[in-house]
């Protein structure tokens, strides 16, 4: 039972990332009708925003510390970050330590701007083009962004540690009645799951309970009718593109302590996230979230040594096998709407 609970926790961790990226993909497809193969690159850009913030907060200079001396008794030079010199050792040190949460605040406006520029500068010209054209141009954009990241940051993964308060592991087994040390799980992975739940809940609440969100949902269902009512639905859809980019970006920021950022991480998550979207149902927001967590849990169980010893390599293909089975039995996906991608 402890192994099962541990795999469920691992699945929720993976599923959180899949669900957040798939939610953004579905928002873009449901509003603009665009198959955006550059969405994984937005996840990657968010991760490297965290890297940039960490480097910026780590900028330092040398100063003489009279309290520290070498073996000859001469005062030593020590490195002090500019943040610590501006805000003091305690506050400045805390800001540096919490660089990942700080990066979330920085990433939100940056990703909104990136999404706006991407939609207005490129994708709007492909609204009425075939989906194959949309895939080609957005995939090409993703490759360009990937190579830019590789050029400026290098090809090697860059470690981005979690705040000190969330390093280490939590004895989850004691919480659910098991013996101590039966189920040990990293704190930050639990934080990431809680963060994903909050973001997903915020997006759904925004779409359901605000006037803006209600108009967007109406536009997703019948764009022409909403336009005939005198509402500039295109402007609202552009804003939704920015929101989708921001969701992907902050998902990437928070994932950096779990997976060190590298230039190809966007492509790695993109393929899996598109499978999640298709399994959940093209255009279905609840379907994307449900499929993300479902496939994350299945992939986690498939990675168990007991399972891999019976079926070698099953952890690499389980998501695609499940996708094939679901699409053979439910061609529209779990919660797909009629008429989407069927013309």
TrEMBL record:
A Pfam family the protein falls into: BPD_transp_2
The keyword ATP-binding belongs to this UniProt entry's keyword annotation: no
InterPro entries: ABC_transp_permease (IPR001851), BCAA_transport_permease (IPR052157)
Compartments reported by the entry: Cell membrane
CDD domains membership: TM_PBP1_LivH_like (cd06582)
Predominant cellular place of this UniProt entry's protein: membrane
Membrane topology, as annotated: Multi-pass membrane protein
Membrane-spanning parts: 16-35, 42-61, 98-123, 190-216, 237-258, 270-298, 310-328
Keywords from the UniProt entry: Amino-acid transport, Cell membrane, Membrane, Transmembrane, Transmembrane helix, Transport
Region forming the signal peptide: none
Keyword hit for ATP-binding: no
Family the entry assigns: Belongs to the binding-protein-dependent transport system permease family. LivHM subfamily.
Entry-linked PANTHER family: ABC TRANSPORTER ATP-BINDING PROTEIN, BRANCHED-CHAIN AMINO ACID TRANSPORT SYSTEM PERMEASE PROTEIN LIVH
Name of this protein: Branched-chain amino acid ABC transporter permease
């Amino acid at each position: 039972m402890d192994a099962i609970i541990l795999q469920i926790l691992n699945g929720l961790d993976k599923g959180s990332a899949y669900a957040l990226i798939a939610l953004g993909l579905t928002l873009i497809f449901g509003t603009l009708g665009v198959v955006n193969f550059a969405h994984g690159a937005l996840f990657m850009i968010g991760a490297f925003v965290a890297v940039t913030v960490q480097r910026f907060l780590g900028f330092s200079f040398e100063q003489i510390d009279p309290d520290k001396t070498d073996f000859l008794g001469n005062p030593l030079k020590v490195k002090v970050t500019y943040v610590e010199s501006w805000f003091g050792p305690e506050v400045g040190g805390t800001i540096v330590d919490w660089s990942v949460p700080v990066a979330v605040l920085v990433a939100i406006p940056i990703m909104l701007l990136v999404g706006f520029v991407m939609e207005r500068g490129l994708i709007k010209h492909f609204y009425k083009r075939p989906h194959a054209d949309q895939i080609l141009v957005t995939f090409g954009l993703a490759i360009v962004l990937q190579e830019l990241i590789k050029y400026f940051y290098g090809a090697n993964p860059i470690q981005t540690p979690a705040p000190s308060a969330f390093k280490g592991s939590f004895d989850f087994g004691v919480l659910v009645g098991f013996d101590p040390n039966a189920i040990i799980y990293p704190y930050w992975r639990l934080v990431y799951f809680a963060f994903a739940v909050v973001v997903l809940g915020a997006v759904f609440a925004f779409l359901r309970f605000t006037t803006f969100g209600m108009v967007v949902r109406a536009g997703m269902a019948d764009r022409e009718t909403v336009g005939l009512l005198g509402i500039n639905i295109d402007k609202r859809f552009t804003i939704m593109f920015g929101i989708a980019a921001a969701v992907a970006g902050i998902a990437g920021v928070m994932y950096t302590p779990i997976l060190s950022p590298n230039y190809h991480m966007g492509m790695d998550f993109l393929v899996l996230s598109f499978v999640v979207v298709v399994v959940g149902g093209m255009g279905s927001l609840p379907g994307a979230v449900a499929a993300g967590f479902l496939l994350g849990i299945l992939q986690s169980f498939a990675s168990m040594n007991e399972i891999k010893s019976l079926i070698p390599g099953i952890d690499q293909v389980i998501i695609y096998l499940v996708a094939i089975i679901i699409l053979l039995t439910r061609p529209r996906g779990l919660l797909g709407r009629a008429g989407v991608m069927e013309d």
